[in-house]
Amino acid sequence: xxxxxxxxxxxxxxxxxxxxxxxxxxxxxxxxxxxxxxxxxxxxxxxxxxxxxxxxxxxxxxxxxxxxxxxxxxxxxxxxxxxxxxxxxxxxxxxxxxxxxxxxxxxxxxxxxxxxxxxxxxxxxxxxxxxxxxxxxxxxxxxxxxxxxxxxxxxxxxxxxxxxxxxxxxxxxxxxxxxxxxxxxxxxxxxxxxxxxxxxxxxxxxxxxxxxxxxxxxxxxxxxxxxxxxxxxxxxxxxxxxxxxxxxxxxxxxxxxxxxxxxxxxxxxxxxxxxxxxxxxxxxxxxxxxxxxxxxxxxxxxxxxxxxxxxxxxxxxxxxxxxxxxxxxxxxxxxxxxxxxxxxxxxxxxxxxxxxxxxxxxxxxxxxxxxxxx
Amino acid sequence: xxxxxxxxxxxxxxxxxxxxxxxxxxxxxxxxxxxxxxxxxxxxxxxxxxxxxxxxxxxxxxxxxxxxxxxxxxxxxxxxx
Lengths: 374, 81
What we know:
Mean pLDDT of chain A: 83
Order of helices and strands of chain A: HHHHEHEHEEHHEEHEEEHEHHHHHHH
Low-confidence stretches of chain A: none
Helix content of chain B: 10-25%
Order of helices and strands of chain B: HEHEEE
Strand content of chain B: 25-35%
Structural class of chain B: alpha+beta
CATH architecture of the domain at 127-203 in chain A: Alpha-Beta Complex
Strand order of the largest sheet of chain A: 8-9-1-10
CATH topology of the domain at 127-203 in chain A: Dipeptide-binding Protein, domain 1
Oligomer: heterodimer
CATH class of chain B: Alpha Beta
Radius of gyration of chain B: 14 Å
Number of strands of chain A: 10
Structural class of chain A: alpha+beta
Largest sheet of chain B: 4 strands, mixed
CATH superfamily of the domain at 127-203 in chain A: Dipeptide-binding Protein, Domain 1
CATH architecture of chain B: Alpha-Beta Complex
Shape of chain A: elongated
Low-confidence stretches of chain B: none
Number of helices of chain A: 17
Distance between the termini of chain B: 29 Å
């Protein structure tokens, strides 16, 4: 009989309860025995088909989620275009690489006020040349580009930003205008050069497209649309501990696979929680553990977890039946029939629960026993 | 600040749990206790930012102290690949 180890949280809660109700000595011991029994009963038995239970526990509430809740533009404290509800769940479990990224940036205590937050928000916002240009035109007579700059434009930063074009062009400032004259150019080239210059990164942090300063409880928080975790964490004013992004690939690259696992867990449970759905967190833990099992993020779909199954029948059962069956017959692969799905398909006893264990009889010992009896 | 201390500094983020490197003896004990082989353990990349400063070799085991709302604290193990 193995001894039952009570989880730390339950042990702590038990001790707290005993202290509150002044339970001591033998009474406490008796109660502890009972607690052990309850914990033992609540444990899963070997061979329990936990994945199926998880799948049902998540997908049943998910059927009740809002289907097309994409934007909530004017809602306070939320920037436009943050996906939530069912589409967000799909994004998380599909481990999509393109989605609406967002960050929540917390500041260090000394910067935790409205003024500094606004200043930092302005600083990190990505600006392009087009943001400081009021009017742009092509001067066909002189074969040059003409940009009318806005009043707050800083010429030095513009100059260094478009430095890479300076080699082949003649860059000059006159009054509030910026002239760029390529040494040799056709009209077509001028046009593409104009677009290139307007899209040139000027200041701020790349991919931080929109910023908003919001008061969240005691803190002033900068919410952004777009995300760049590494560059943000490098800023001296940022509270590294609490700053948060919803991009799991970025987290994986900067903070490691365990952090990515925690992010998937947080995002999935908060998405469900927002919709008022109560799913036990252990189910989501199981999925996030499975998604990060290989040291990198894998999606739940056919290119991820399901695609990595060893059984051909199980893969064929999921998606792209023909592809898997034909490729398996070309290669002459074998299916060992070890998993649950393939055994259900061919009508065998699936290795779940009592089907998981097999009886092996030692004939010598059997003879001994039967010999004794007869 | 050098690049390395910067990266270690990032690990103060609330998403990152504590990573520890198990010694050879501890690792063998663990494998015996759970009756598993190294291959069956979950994996972690050698250049994972969270274990870069530990200089773990391939095949060694990382002990991760996770916080959990249901169990308080529990341990998770990953093998370095």
